[in-house]
Write a structure and sequence with these properties.
The chain is an alpha/beta fold and 458 residues long. The chain is 30% helix and 22% strand. Helix 7 (215-231) runs parallel beside helix 8, helix 8 (244-255) runs parallel beside helix 10 (293-305) and helix 12 (343-353) packs antiparallel against helix 13. It binds dihydropyrimidine-2,4(1H,3H)-dione (DUC) and zinc ion (ZN) (2 copies).
Length: 458
């Protein structure tokens, strides 16, 4: 046996128990109390939790966006992931007019493979159907392991938005090939209406980023997305949902039995729109913007009720000098914030405080992402699955600061955040990649996760 992790409190989505975990050929080979097994490496983790590695299904690494490229590439982004207990990241390659899906993803796969410090998968953003011919490529994309496609209902001027007709074609084709459609839901025309008005009035601070995307701008698009998913009976995954009315509409549709999933992000759970009034408000500019307290409370309530299926990060950091482009004009601030290294520590600290259970944190950050997106080898501590394992010390005090993160960005919205409890080790398929504050893995260790189409339930 390669590895034996002894005496930990093993946490699954539905139970917690003291056990040993044995690892062979990168897989969990045995789980049980006092396993009579010899291993090359034995780690005693008494007093600590043993968790499945998190799967961050929403990152934008080396993404051309907002007039620049996001600050974390595949190496630094996946290194940071490893140090935050994330053992698989999903990135979002962007298909552009005239380009195919497989070609787009292959290009990114070639960039990522030599740099990946954890396992990785891709959704593909669809921006143009190439006069309809792109739809013929969906099956080939699924055969390549891409079983989720994303559309933007916003970013019209940037040429990324699809109209409702295109959206429905994507949704129907995705269903036909056993895939799912992910949606960024906001209403672009109303945003532009507000931007024009605020610019005329000389209102240019980061606070107007929030006011130009009032809560109903997301609400309308969330409801429209749900409406089309119901009308065409197609699967839908709403990314970074942040609005109270949106999550309530999703709860109703889910109760009615529709195949609809909700993702939210740690920044919507931790901060409120008040951050945009701060001197450094531009650093928090992302879309959809962070909402008011009522929406934040509704998201936590929806987590407790099970309406929120996934917490992922939308990791898309930019450097301070890039955020500063929008010092006097909020429309020039590149949208996006850091998060991949903070996801699991943050959600687990909320479990440690008693706001949610550890089982819920595992379900939201590992088991549900694996289930919804077809990572059949991942997401839970079960015999036969990949040994993607995090050891968590519930007593370790940790304060987030940019210098103890492992990304390439120069600031973080999480600066100064104190956490009770922190991951102390991360294993990817049985290989130690993070050990007590230090990255100990190597670029290229991460493998492409070829996903399979099929059922998301169960
Ligand atoms: N929103 C962001 O804030 N950044 C990246 C893309 C997005 O939709
Ligand atoms: Zn988005
Ligand atoms: Zn995103």
């Amino acid at each position: 046996m390669e590895l034996l992790i002894k005496n930990g409190a093993v946490v699954t989505e539905s139970s917690s128990f003291i056990a040993d975990i044995a690892v062979k050929d990168g897989k969990i080979s045995c789980i049980g109390k006092n396993l009579p097994i010899e291993a090359k490496k034995v780690v005693d983790v008494s007093g600590k939790y043993v968790l499945p590695g998190a799967i961050d299904v929403h990152t934008h690494l080396a993404m051309p966006f907002g007039g620049t490229v996001s600050a974390d590439g595949y190496l630094s982004g996946t290194r940071a992931a490893a140090c935050g207990g994330v053992t698989t990241v999903f990135d979002y390659p962007m298909q552009r007019k005239g380009k195919g899906i497989v070609e787009t993803v292959e290009e990114r796969n070639r960039m990522c493979a030599p740099e990946a410090c954890v396992d990785y998968a891709f959704h593909c953003i669809i921006t143009d159907l190439n006069d309809g011919t792109l739809l013929d490529e969906f099956q080939a994309a699924v055969d390549y392991g891409i079983t989720s496609f994303k559309c933007f209902m916003v970013y019209k001027k940037e040429g990324l938005m699809v109209d409702d007709g295109t959206l429905v074609k994507v949704m129907l084709k995705a269903k036909e090939v056993g895939a799912i459609t992910n949606l960024h839901a906001e209403n672009p025309d109303i945003i532009d209406f507000y931007i024009e008005r605020f610019k005329k009035e000389g209102k240019t601070s980061a606070w107007y980023h929030y006011l130009s995307r009032p809560e109903f701008v997301e609400e309308e698009a969330d409801k429209r997305a749900i409406h089309w998913a119901k009308a065409f009976n197609v699967p839908l995954y709403i990314v970074h949902l942040a609005s109270k009315a949106g999550v309530e509409a999703a709860a109703v549709a889910k109760m009615e039995g529709y195949d609809i999933y909700v993702e939210t992000c740690p920044h919507y759970l931790e901060f409120t729109s008040e951050v945009y009034k701060r001197e450094d408000g531009r650093n928090f500019v992302c879309s959809p913007p962070i909402k008011g307290k009522e929406s934040q409370d509704a998201l936590w309530a929806a987590i407790r009720k099970g309406t929120v299926d996934v917490v992922a990060t939308d990791h898309c950091p930019f450097q301070s000098y890039e955020k500063d482009w929008g010092k006097d004009d909020f429309t020039k601030i590149p949208n996006g914030c850091a998060g991949v290294e903070n996801l699991y520590p943050y959600m687990l600290s909320k479990a440690n405080e008693g706001k949610i259970s550890f089982n819920t944190a595992v379900k939201l950050c590992a088991t549900n992402p694996a289930r919804i997106f077809g990572c059949t080898e991942k997401g839970s501590l079960t015999v036969g699955k990949d040994a993607d394992i995090v050891i968590y010390d519930p007593d370790k005090e940790f304060t987030i600061t940019v210098s103890n993160m492992h990304s390439d960005y120069d600031h973080t919205i999480w600066e100064g955040k104190k956490l009770k409890g922190y991951p102390v080790q991360t294993y990817v398929r049985g290989e130690l990649v993070y050990d007590d504050g230090k990255f100990v893995g190597k670029p290229g260790l991460g493998k492409f996760v070829r996903r399979k189409p099929g059922s998301r339930k169960g």
